[in-house]
Amino acid sequence: MQLNTIKPSKNSTHNVKRLGRGIGSGKGKTCGKGHKGQKARSGYSKKLHFEGGQMPKQRRLPKTGFVSQKKNKRKIIRLSELNKLGQNKIDISCLMDAKLVNKKHKIIKIISNGNINSNIIINGINITKGAKLKIQENGGKII
User: Fold this and answer.
1) pTM for this one?
2) What separation in angstroms does the CA of 75 have from each of 36, 68, 105, 133?
3) CATH of the domain at 129
4) Is residue 90 one of the residues assigned to a domain?
């Protein structure tokens, strides 16, 4: 076999339709595009996802919103959860032992949801103003 002898297999290729070459060719005058209209003009291209004026699929379906990556790194702890611990000194290691917090939680905050019964000392944990007031009313401290 030589490069100058290579040919496509028989019946695998077709002749190109010669458009606009007279009435006898079968594709003369309008060249198979019908009469007038947008599709008959040069430069016509149908828009991607166009459905004939019907609302396109990508606009009909609901979109999903933004999901924060920080969501999984934050942990909010209620005062009522601190009551269940039954300890006076509370820090991050204490919360890890109680399995309220994991290593993945970078931001830990105590909120004033619920009541605190005992006087506790909180060390190295963020806290809201309301929670701070409730803890200090019961004789607790925030370090």
Assistant:
1) 0.51
2) 66, 14, 6, 21
3) 3.100.10.10
4) yes
